[in-house]
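Cytochrome structure dump, as promised
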Amino acid sequence: MTTTLVWNPLDPASIQDPYPIYAELRERCPVYWHEGMSSWVLTRYDDCQWVLRDHAAFARDRRRAGAEIPDDKLNIQTQDPPEQALLRGVTARSLNSQRLQEICAEARELMEHRLRGLAGAGPFDLMRDLAGPGAIHVINNVFGVHAYTQDSYAPIYRGLTQAMDSGLDPERLAPGRAAGRALSEEVGGWFADGLGQDGLLGMVTGHADVPGLPTPYVVNTIAATYNAGFSTLYASTGAITLEVLRAGPALLADLDPADPHVLTLAADELMRFTSPAQATARVALEPVELHGVRIEPKQTIVTMMAAANRDPRQFADPDRIVLDRAPNRHLAFAWGPHICLGARLAMTWAAEVIAFLAEHGPRLRLAGQEEYMRAATLRNLVRLPLEYAG
Ligand code: HEM
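structure tokens r here:
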């Protein structure tokens, strides 16, 4: 399918509000060739779900399409089934065995404490003053390591997040690699020093060097998980807050924050509506035909989950937040063998953020223009000015 539609995902207007262009792509050109990314871009729900689910036909592990990845660069995200099973299983069990509920509740208390200090003091920045402290508290406590602060982690977060778009802007590759090296060195140090024995890290460390799990692969996976965790918890705190405040106090007025079922439905809906993870990629391993377009083996396919999550073929009234939407089979955490390993933690945190907003939202107001990082794969606010009446 050919089209004259021109789209630069790094255009600030597209980052600010990508949903109009997603809708246009979805309706006019569901299999769109993006010259800059040298990739096919899919925006319809069924198509994205199919590609994410069918790992026999579409690889995350580029070695299956002939690429070379040195052993010291392997991590959970570069391996497909069945090789991924052992470390994915160990990491998921270690993560889900942590005190996720308590840790998230502590981080919410931390945000509440800081918010009280900001009452009546004029505009503050949600990202710097609340989301950053909350997200770093959660991730450090889950890992059982407190080496990074919000400020010391910021350059690594920025480097890795921007490098996700290096297909669009190759200049992001070198700083991204440097950030990745710095993080892996730090995590390697945690291993060597035996830090974090009580947290996720300690549980996973116990499996390093067992057959099939060489230490660099484990270290890289821990590093990738730490960053995936911090970056999305931080970004989703901002995204959820912005959408809830934009919608106005009526949105959460009838929500019972003490009801975990209600909170889970609401968290799912806000993930569908405003997940920070816009897209991921796979490589075709065999020729496939989709909406009259032939995709060749070794071609890259970008699945735009954020576009699929607003597909009216799957979701009634997709541009409206319906807090009790069910079923809600959104793709915010992707689908298939690489589905987000931290989804339970992400949902637990989102529920805390929503409960926090149900309580304090009526006295919070947007107090200036929000700002996004110039990043398209992970859409994330870097500034969200608010005021709190107390
Ligand atoms: C709002 C929060 C989150 C969102 C929207 C999100 C989204 C995603 C998505 C879309 C993927 C799949 C990527 C792909 O298939 O290529 C993924 C994978 C992953 N996520 Fe999350 N994530 C979130 C939170 C977390 C947290 C809190 C952690 C860990 C602490 C985490 C760890 C991971 C890991 C390790 C993977 C790779 C899994 C694999 O490749 O097998 N994520 N996430």
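Residues 60, 76-77, 84, 88, 95, 224-225, 228-229, 232-233, 236, 275-277, 280, 332-334, 338, 340-342, 345-346 surround protoporphyrin IX containing FE (CB under 6 Å).
lmk if u need the other ones
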